Amino acid sequence: MSTESVWLRPESGRPRRVLPLTRERIVAAAVTLLDEQGVEGLTMRRLAQQLDVTSTALYWHVKTKDDVLDLAVDRIFGDVPLPEPSGDWAEDVRSLARAWRAAMLRHPWTPRLVGRPMLGPNVLARTEFLQAALVRGGRDGLHLAVATRMVANYVIGAALTEATWRQTADPLARAAARSHLAALGGAYPTLNASGHLDDSRWDDDILFEEGLDGILLAVARTGRPDDGAPT
Fold this sequence. Notes:
By secondary structure, the chain is mainly alpha-helical. It has 10 helices and no strands.
């Protein structure tokens, strides 16, 4: 199986035998399957059935399941609005981060795939927006790379944690987890006092916003002489 990214291969110049089938239709059907069944539930056979074509027809447009996943992730990034840059770099980053998290939570299979090679046009456009905002905030060179990773890792990690937790939406299972931790209170007093695993204590949105504020404060200090880091 080829490991080359779909974004690095030109589309085949061969004539399409199934004219109604397009890459766009394939990606739309793949997103539907991924939303319903997750990454494990997506197979080329099921995708072909969803489109009412043969598996062979798919291979005129995509070579592998990995191609489909890369295209689907980029499609989800296309749902993240790109606002006009403002005079406040930090607010621009906040707007992007909020929309990015929301898109991943609407499609909870996406966070675990974001570590794949991200070369699609929608991903690159939003990464460009993020870095341009950070540059307006005074970051460059190593500090720009560090700040980009800080923001991206925070948003991806938050979305992955929330999406995974939401998949265990059974109130009884969540209550059992909290009860288990409470029963071990002597061993984990700080966790119990902080409300760890108690999703009724603080809303996910509040936790995300407060964490994002902390990340942006750290980004603003990255590389300043007064924090002991190199300039």
